[in-house]
Design a protein that fits this description.
Blueprint: E1 3-5, E2 12-14, E3 18-19, H1 33-45, E4 50-52, H2 61-70, E5 78-83, E6 85-89, E7 92-95, H3 99-113, E8 118-124, H4 128-131, H5 134-145, E9 149-155, H6 162-166, E10 173-179, H7 191-198, E11 201-205, H8 234-250, H9 258-267, E12 274-275, H10 282-289, H11 291-294
Parallel strand pairs: 3-4, 4-5, 5-8, 8-9, 9-10, 10-11, 11-12
Antiparallel strand pairs: 1-2, 6-7
Helix pairs in contact: 1-2, 1-10, 2-3
GO molecular function, one term: oxidoreductase activity
Keywords: Oxidoreductase
InterPro entries: AKR_Detox_Biosynth, NAD(P)_OxRdtase_dom_sf, NADP_OxRdtase_dom
Length: 305
């Protein structure tokens, strides 16, 4: 495993983390505690130390699985979670952005994670109007001073949300999370330069484009109704998968796993600190971790254009 400095936080994070939306049950299957224990246990064994979750991945369900899995070695992990959305049921959420509501979410997250501090607490895909609440950031600063939060972050909803990115330093946010992958390079244009200028850590979410860059899906694939990808527009989905076929044929070196290539591709951008792909099982955790080897500077292959 390789490690990088997460911007001005100074934290050393593994270049491959574990994304955990799937633990909330919205990616086609449900999880048990032993399964999560095995996934995170293997992740630690492989040198991964970063977990990303959110209060709305289930009603703190993902956080609860994680909390139980790491309660005996909490100090070995960097846990990032998010706030702003209340889970009511499968793919059903409402926004909760008032300072009082966020404080309640924070306390519930700490309880679910079985910890007295969160390493990175992130504003989760909220509007600019909700972002511009001085009372909210004052509240969060007080929680940092109280030791319940180590560092603040912003998970921007739009890949080109320069407004919130540019305001990071003003609100004491030190980390930006953004969708970035071979199919979506929008952050390269404005967001990444701003992150580099401010020395912000960058977490690339959806680095496998919702699994499409795994190379496992062909145009025409059908997802079950309890899989979040079932909601993706058919025409857009097939267009993406056709592009994936072309990328696999023209860009991925022969004999290289496409998912690992796609993760390494993200990590080659100098602004990106870590990728946080989801992993459905131990085997996928192992496969994701191998991307760190491909992303190393001394690897002979050229991974980016």
């Amino acid at each position: 495993m390789k490690y990088r400095r997460l911007g001005k936080t100074g934290l050393k994070v593994s270049v491959v983390g574990v994304g955990t939306w799937q633990f909330g049950g919205e990616w086609g299957r449900t999880y048990t505690q032993p399964e999560v224990d095995q996934i995170l246990g293997k992740a630690k064994e492989l040198g991964i130390n970063l977990i990303d979750t959110a209060e709305c991945y289930g009603d703190h369900l993902s956080e609860s699985f994680i909390g139980k899995a790491i309660q005996h070695d909490r100090q070995d992990w960097i846990v990032a979670t998010k706030f702003g959305h209340k889970f009511h049921g499968h793919l059903n959420r409402t926004d909760h952005w008032s300072p009082q509501e966020v404080l309640k979410q924070l306390e519930n997250s700490l309880r679910a994670l079985r910890t007295d501090y969160i390493d990175i607490y992130q504003f989760h895909s909220g509007s600019n109007e909700m972002f511009d609440q001085d009372e909210l950031w004052t509240l969060l600063d007080k929680q940092v001073q109280a030791g319940k939060i180590r560092h603040l972050g912003i998970s921007i909803g739009s890949n080109d949300n320069l407004y919130q990115t540019e305001a990071s330093t003003r609100v004491n946010s030190e980390v930006i999370q953004v969708v970035y992958n071979r199919l979506d390079r929008v952050p390269e244009e404005r967001v990444f330069p701003s992150c580099q200028k401010q020395d912000l850590g960058v977490l690339a979410r959806v680095p496998l484009a919702s699994g499409y860059l795994s190379g496992n899906y062909k145009p025409g694939v059908e997802f079950t109704e309890n899989d979040v990808r079932h909601r993706h527009e058919r025409a857009d989905l097939d267009k993406k998968l056709q592009l994936v076929e072309e990328i696999k044929r023209t860009e991925v070196p022969e004999g290289v796993n496409m998912a690992q290539w796609a993760l390494a591709w993200c990590l080659k951008h100098p602004a990106v600190t870590s990728v946080i792909p989801g992993c459905k099982d131990v085997a996928q955790t192992e496969a994701n971790a191998k991307a760190a080897e491909l992303a190393s500077e001394d690897h002979p292959q050229a991974w980016r254009d």
